[in-house]
TrEMBL record:
Family classification: Belongs to the binding-protein-dependent transport system permease family. MalFG subfamily.
Membrane disposition: Multi-pass membrane protein
Localization in the cell: Cell inner membrane; Cell membrane
The keyword 4Fe-4S appears for this protein: no
Summary of the function given for this chain in its UniProt record: Part of the ABC transporter complex MalEFGK involved in maltose/maltodextrin import. Probably responsible for the translocation of the substrate across the membrane.
Species, as recorded: Roseateles aquae
SUPFAM superfamilies attached to this UniProt entry: MalF N-terminal region-like, MetI-like
Entries under InterPro entries matching the protein: MalF_N (IPR035277), MalF_P2 (IPR029345), MalF_P2_sf (IPR047103), MetI-like (IPR000515), MetI-like_sf (IPR035906)
Pfam family of the protein (one): MalF_P2
Protein name stated in the entry: Maltose/maltodextrin transport system permease protein
Chief place where the protein resides: membrane
Occurrences of domain ABC transmembrane type-1 (ranges): 295-518
Length: 527
């Protein structure tokens, strides 16, 4: 029996390949080659954009991928490579990139590199208004002729030879009287639509008039003229302002071209500033005060949310696990609704409910005890409101987890406890809670990390308000670190990306450290 089975399998393995398999074999190497070429082109485009390190990293990733999927020697790695590549691209790379930005002065005032800022300044110029001339384009067979005319009278003065209008060309013009016959035979002026279509080529065209050393540049849809540049590049890399001869040196400590008198040119350029952003967080008094307060509130907010959500979710799970409770299914469905409704909708609903003048919560409190709390204006009340809303959004998750964990507790433990005369509270604190909290601990750590970065709740409910009035750096009393970072990076303080990246790196380190400490402590408690 075994011999026949082996022979059958051997015969099956020797069957000739089908049409689909033969087609796959034929197309394998052409498709692989095309994919390699596409990958190399992508690497080249990244390199051409000035991202040398990014191009090298992308090349290494593509090389590893092609080696693993083409070579039979790395067959086992084919199942691991997608996950590892995704982790490197979507986790490791953004983390490293953010950390690197934290050591620079990258901001809205320092977006460009030093070379690009120099090129930008050297391109600044004014037109010499007294020598500006109008122009018109005329068809001449398959080519075009350009006619310059006096800007005031409109009289044609110069005409070009037939032009193909290819970018970067220099055209020699001659007086109209020298080509009078050709000028009379010119077609009508090109309409504005066709003139606009030639704009890019015209912007690169240089017109040379007889007896003039300075060429004419494209100044607009109707004008050519000489230009007067504002800056001159010096051999040492500095820039000289031609209007007054003042020299501006590139300062790598500030990221600006600066004169000896301290005048700075805009825009600035990106430079490495070392630990300056981190020192600013810890040593600058204007920054340190709000930062430490926001950090403390972030920890309190995350911890209180996890504690209250766990207590409420666990108690509700225990109550719903009581078999003699009527309508358990209905209660479970109603209590699950906050988790089923999208979070941003619930947050906006609560924002209306807590409205001081028109909210239902204040209407009920006013009817019962005659008060209307200023939930959004008072810092303490705003923080209490945030915790309440976040606990409302988070307790169903804990309740579902605990409901599943309760099913795993043996019923014999409760029967033995009942024989010993223990009550419900004793069962909860001696049996239920200890057996639930151990498997629940890693999930509580992840819930703490999530709430540490709960940007959506802060942005939609309070937007970090009310603000610290005594702080020079805009900061809100209900801001957590991630929303504070967002305000620094994109809103209130001039889009300081370097400082925001430093704060983001610090947030990552703090969350990772606290998560590791919590896991270590829970691991010891479980031993």
């Amino acid at each position: 029996m075994n011999a026949s089975t082996t022979a059958h399998r051997f015969a099956y393995s020797q069957l000739p390949p089908g049409p689909l398999e033969r087609s796959a074999r034929l197309l394998r190497w052409p498709l692989t080659g095309a994919a390699m070429l596409a990958s190399l082109y992508l690497v080249f485009m990244v390199y051409a954009s000035g991202q040398t390190l990014g191009a090298l990293g992308l090349l290494a990733l593509f090389a590893a991928g092609f080696y693993i999927y083409v070579s039979q020697a790395a067959f086992a790695a084919r199942y691991l490579f997608p996950g590892i590549a995704g982790m490197l691209v979507f986790i490791a790379f953004p983390l490293v990139f953010t950390a690197v930005i934290g050591f620079t002065n990258y901001s809205s005032a320092h977006l460009l590199s030093e070379e690009r800022v120099r090129d930008y300044l050297l391109e600044q110029h004014d037109a010499v208004e007294a020598q500006v001339m109008g122009y018109s384009l005329h068809a001449d067979g398959k080519s075009l002729r350009l006619v310059l005319s006096d800007a005031t009278s409109g009289e044609p003065r110069f005409i070009s030879a037939p032009l193909a209008l290819q970018g970067g060309k220099q055209a020699q013009l001659v007086p109209m009287r020298e080509l009078a016959t050709e000028a009379q035979a010119l077609a009508a002026t090109l309409p504005l639509r066709e003139l606009i279509a030639q704009r890019e080529a015209l912007s690169q065209l240089r017109l040379q008039l007889p007896g003039q050393a300075e060429p004419l540049h494209y100044l607009g849809l109707r004008e050519f003229g000489p230009i007067r540049r504002h800056w001159e590049s010096l051999p040492d890399g500095s820039l000289k302002r031609l209007a007054d001869g003042q020299v501006f040196q590139p300062k790598r400590d500030s990221g600006f071209f600066e004169s000896a008198s301290g005048e700075q040119l805009q825009p600035g350029f990106k430079v490495l500033v070392g630990s300056q952003n981190y020192a600013r967080m810890l040593l600058n008094e204007d920054f340190r005060g709000p930062f430490l307060a926001i950090f403390s509130w972030t920890v309190i907010f995350s911890l209180s949310t996890v504690v209250f959500s766990t207590v409420i979710g666990m108690l509700l799970a225990v109550l719903l696990n009581w078999e003699d409770l009527r309508f358990r299914g209905t209660y479970r469905t109603l209590l699950f609704l906050p988790y089923a409704v999208p979070g941003f909708i619930s947050i906006l609903v609560f924002k209306g409910l807590f409205n001081q003048n028109f909210g239902e919560i204040n209407a009920i409190l006013d009817a019962l005890i005659g008060v209307k709390p200023a939930w959004f204006a008072d810092p303490l009340l705003a923080k209490i409101m945030l915790v309440i809303v976040n606990v409302w959004l988070g307790y169903p998750y804990i309740m579902i987890l605990c409901s599943g964990l309760l099913k795993a507790i043996p019923a014999d433990l409760y029967e033995a406890s009942a024989l010993a005369g223990a009550g419900p509270l004793t069962n909860f604190f001696k049996i239920t809670a200890p057996l639930i909290i151990k498997p629940l601990a890693p999930l509580l750590v992840s819930a703490f990390a999530f709430n540490f970065n709960n940007f959506v709740l802060i942005a939609l409910l309070t937007d970090g308000r009310p603000d610290y009035l005594s702080s020079k750096i805009p900061a809100g009393q209900t801001d957590i670190l991630v929303s504070y970072t967002y305000r620094i990076a994109f809103r209130d303080s001039g889009t300081d990306f370097g400082l925001a990246a430093a704060i983001s790196t610090l947030i990552f380190i703090l969350v990772a450290a606290m998560s590791l400490i919590n896991l270590r402590l829970m691991k010891r408690a479980q031993q």
